[in-house]
Amino acid sequence: MSVLPSYDVIIIGAGPGGYVCAVRCAQLGMKVACVEKQQALGGTCLNVGCIPSKALLQASEKYEEAQHSLGAFGVKIEKMSLDLKAMMAHKDGVVGANTQGIEFLFKKNKIEWIKGTATIEEAGKVSVDGKKYDTDNIIIATGSEVMSLPNIEIDEDRIVSSTGALSLSKVPKTLAVIGGGYIGLEMGAVWSRLGSDVTIIEYLDKILPGMDEDVSKDMLKILTKQGMSFKLSTKVMGAKRSKAGLDLTLEPATGGKSEKLKADVVLVSVGRKAYTDGLGLEAIGVERDERGRIVTDETFESSVEGIFAIGDVIAGPMLAHKAEEEGVVLAEMLAGETGHIDYNLIPGVVYTHPEASQIGQTEQQLKEDNVAYKVGKFPYMANGRARAMNALDGFVKILADKKTDKIVGAHILGAEAGTLIHEIAAVMEFGGSAEDLARMCHAHPTLSEIVKEAALAVDDRPIHI
Fold it and tell me: Which of 411, 442, 444, 464 is the catalytic position?
């Protein structure tokens, strides 16, 4: 009888959660294999998500800046044109470099990449395209997939998901985006900058529904000023293809008279769902919730002993950095160490221009929970560095407990918001107060001074406004 290949850990999925978990397990002395059926490591994030979208966002922002903004700095550009093929090549190059980097990390840490599709036969046994493997621990990190809408078939040609929106061969004259969340706004921004007439269709009465209302309202104004159109409180009933393009049927979310909207391309961006198809979870008794996510305990273990799950396949925000942190904590727990994640302190960032970021509670959540709080808010336009950058849109908003002054939430709309949020995150991680943040000396002139002024504003004592 042949002996099955054996590992301390087999991880299914090589996205941010899976590959980071694999590296940390290997660092802790475990024998690790990672199963990935795609041709490149990195999962959705590196191949058709976070990384390529940010490459296009950055490139399209440069294009828009050259067209409309650099003149204010005395930089004159004539006869400028768009080379979409070169822009896409930049995006593909960034993706390739990142995925190859993960291959290097696997080799460096002696992690075996098992190429193929995994099925869990039982605790401790994984089959990959018919070949069987033994392991002490199985970690499911298969991520998520795009959600669709009834009567709207995604063909990645004219009706696309975020994957197709990253690889359009030409700039559509008109683009309809179904969904006003992170991904919809980011992809809409890319193609709007490149020349598309973009309409965002959102079922709710606001965009970025999970973010603080001040951010949502001001972002709507800013993106509208940039040229994007919005249809809020609107649902899409269907999409009809014709030679001329696509005809969308829209209705008010509360019911009423329908209307038509023509578009060359439609992007469906209504969220993502846990991807667990084909793993054999039902047969082995792994419990899932009403949304198809794997139910886990505080150690990330499922209802079947020895089978764990992290990332988008379990509850919580579907964010790459959340999956990475879970992967590290789980690896350390398996090694007998302790680990901890404060799910209230996971930053969220929207990479439009300007960016939006948040951490902790929104003002609306504090009201719902009857928490007494103070607000400190400071605008970008009152900051010297922001003026030098011509980046006057936005604000920093800090929420602090009224009794203790402990920071309980922070929300930023403006240039480099995704970077600025981490100073506040560090203070919150150590239970710091608005006063702690306000007392820190910030270099001048920097955008970080806006954070300091917002912290001062919590106690009604900002200096520069």
Answer: 444
